[in-house]
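Quick question, first post here. What does this chain look like in 3D?
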Amino acid sequence: MSDGQEEREEQEQRRKWESEKKDRDDDLERDWERVGERERRDSRAAEVEALDAGVRAQSGQRTRRSFVIAAAAAASGYGFYRWIDRSPGDQLIPRPLRKMLEFNARVSRGAFDERGLAPTYPVARSMELRTNGNYGLKMNLVPESYRLQMVGVEDAKRLPQYVEDVTAWEYQYVAKQDAGPVEHDTKVAPKAAAVVGNGSKAKADPNGDAGMGEGPMMQGGAASTMVGGGGDKKNEVKMPPAFEAAFAALKKAQGNKRPRGQEEAGMSDNTLDPGTPGLLLTMDDVTSLPHHELVTEFKCIEGWSQVVHWGGRRLADLIAKYPPERKPDGSLPKYVYMETPDGDYYCGFSLQACMHPQSLLVTEMAGRPLAQWHGAPIRLHMPIKYGYKQIKRIGLIAYTDRRPDDYWTKLGYDWYAGL
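> Answer (accepted):
Ran it through. Tokens below.
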């Protein structure tokens, strides 16, 4: 064998050996990698297991804690509800809710002080105010018989309108000849069907009382606008004879006048006692004040609102002309009380709200004289208050230092009613 051949064979064997060595090294490296991967996998699995165990332990603790907290919260909420529900009532709502309403009123009064001006609008945006609630408007008032009673006026005796007993004045009423627009009051039950007018002029009365004023409401029974009341005589409860006799005696003692406070909230605690002195103002006395017009938004507690064109006299001007009598310490009374001539509807206000420059004694609406169903001859517009405070057909304005009674407050609503 030649040297060249031996050298080639030797090189071939070396390459073979190096290849086998490389394969063995690769196999060994792969084995080490597999071992390392297995160890890493086992280590990772152990770590995951440890983490899972920790999570399960914490989850169990937190789940139990959550159930305990949730149960405690539910028990507290139920206990709070039961406490409110079993609390003594205060004007048809639990006392805690009444206290919360009063707290909200204090916060609102403290923040706004009843001095902010309501937005005004162009006349073109205004519309006819829809009717909503006919409390104190069951019959039409004879305009010539209207007098605005004022009580608590300073030096009232020196004025020509002074009388010894404003309650002796008798308002005159007539049955409705016009049904008027359909009412939209959602706070009361639907009224019974009725008609107004006679013969060919008879037509359905959407307000349901036929304008007669002779139904059970006028006799001291359920008013047609009360919840559950329909003005149906066949559903009336017969009064015991002794009660009827006592009721007849009371009417006679009152000069056979219509009983006061015949709506759901009953008679006001601020209704004047017989023999109360004061002023009897005519419409001329009121309309002699400067005339003002406003286009503001009327907002109802039921959730609707309308922009309305109002015309009339500022309540502040009336108060300036007939100011309240000062107390011995020189301060003014804090409140003003208003009610309809029959005492069926009534509202109380702070003197400051009445002095607001936008508080208006309305005699016109949409450029026309105020209609009977809107509270003629005088109603109140106070755009810083909800609509249920804007009393129609004002018969009495009285100054007082005690917070006055309020119709809807007695039925669970807020006395302040501020916007």
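The helical segments are 3-85, 95-112, 241-253, 283-287, 315-321, 351-354.
The longest strand covers residues 305-314.
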